[in-house]
Design goal:
Elements lengths: L1 H36 L2 E10 L4 E13 L3 E3 L1 H10 L3 H21 L7 E4 L2 H5 L3 H10 L8 E6 H6 L1 H13 L3 E7 L7 H5 L4 E4 L1 H5 L7 H14 L3 E5 L4 H9 L4 E3 L9 H17 L1
Parallel strand pairs: 2-4, 4-5, 5-6, 6-7, 7-8, 8-9
Antiparallel strand pairs: 1-2, 1-9, 2-3
Helix pairs in contact: 3-5
Bound molecules: ligand C2E and magnesium ion (3 copies).
């Protein structure tokens, strides 16, 4: 009887492995199809200067709304894109799309608006990255300094030499750089000095702990002071409450991004947000 039971367990386990495998195959297939069909969307989240209350940038964020499974987070599908070796076509599509949006905004009233884009380790290693950026942004006359490349602390840790070289190459093109999710890992403060960053983004996790552990305020204060020491603009993201906003204002943070002002918006909503804000700005 015992033998039969263990055989049953083996059977169940095999079935589970099979299901997991076929699920993975299914995801792979879906991701491949989505990249080929360009089923992704780009959302833009406004960044507000909390000293002037003006909108001073937007961050482009990748979105995938699957007809059957709904919206799938970028952190979930980007690793699959990487496993499938589809980073280059996705990056090309993404950069071209952002450049077009940038051009459209430039043609209207928002010629000033800088756009931040996120690049993963894999994307940074794409041999065609610089030429894609050149072709799409610089060849159509968009100033490099209106483009900001965000690189997470984690990516920097995984690949310091590569990131160092790339950021210098981008700098030559006038493109700026931001270290994203700073304070979530264990980057050395030295990185802020040694790498050519112009901005630092405080990790969302630091803000989330703020309401629970008020002593986290000094952590944030330290990151802001550190950023300012190296002449970097400091951005806090994931700001959800007025209370967090108040604290950040008192701590002399420069910019914020978060639900308290706006969620990431689709192209149409983002354009409306920009025109609302620039009308406001013109009036004041
Ligand atoms: P990230 O670059 O740190 O982006 C910030 C994330 O915080 C975004 O999530 C944004 O929607 C979310 N967020 C903004 N405000 C709030 C808030 O007030 N509260 C909360 N709880 N969340 C807020 P999203 O769009 O899901 O992106 C997650 C991560 O996926 C990004 O983190 C980035 O690392 C990655 N990602 C997104 N788009 C791209 C892309 O085009 N390329 C690459 N390589 N990575 C991307
Ligand atoms: Mg999300
Ligand atoms: Mg980012
Ligand atoms: Mg971040």
């Amino acid at each position: 009887e015992n033998k039969q039971k263990s055989q049953e367990t083996i059977c169940v386990k095999k079935q589970q492995i099979y299901q997991q495998k076929s699920q993975a195959e299914k995801i792979k297939f879906m991701v491949k199809k989505a990249v080929i069909n360009q089923d992704f969307l780009i959302y833009y989240q406004p960044q507000i200067n909390i000293k002037t209350n003006k909108i001073e940038g937007v961050e482009a964020l990748l979105r995938w709304h699957h007809p059957e499974f709904g919206s799938i987070a970028p952190n979930q599908f980007i690793p699959w894109v990487e496993k499938l070796d589809l980073v280059i076509p996705l990056t090309e599509w993404f950069i071209e799309k952002v450049a077009r949006q940038h051009q459209a905004w430039r043609a209207s009233d928002f010629s000033f608006i800088p756009i931040s884009i996120n690049l993963s380790s894999h994307q940074l290693q794409a041999p065609t990255l610089l030429s894609i950026l050149n072709q799409n942004f610089l060849s159509i006359g968009l100033e490099g300094n209106l483009l900001i490349v965000e690189i997470t602390e984690k990516t920097l840790q995984e690949n310091p030499q590569n990131v160092f070289r790339l950021l210098h190459e981008l700098k030559q093109l006038g493109i700026k750089a931001c270290i994203d999710d700073f304070g979530s890992g264990t980057t050395s403060a030295r990185h802020l000095q040694q790498f050519p960053f112009t901005q630092v983004k405080i990790a969302q996790s630091l803000l989330q702990n703020l309401e629970k552990y008020p002593e986290e305020i000094s952590m944030i204060a330290a990151v802001i002071a550190l950023g300012h020491t190296f002449k970097l603009k400091v951005i806090a993201e994931g700001v959800e409450t007025e209370n967090q906003l108040d604290i950040l204002r008192k701590l002399d943070c420069d910019m914020i991004q978060g639900y308290v002002f706006s969620k990431p918006l689709n192209e149409i909503e983002a354009t409306q947000f920009l025109s609302f804000y620039s009308d406001d700005q013109n009036k004041s």
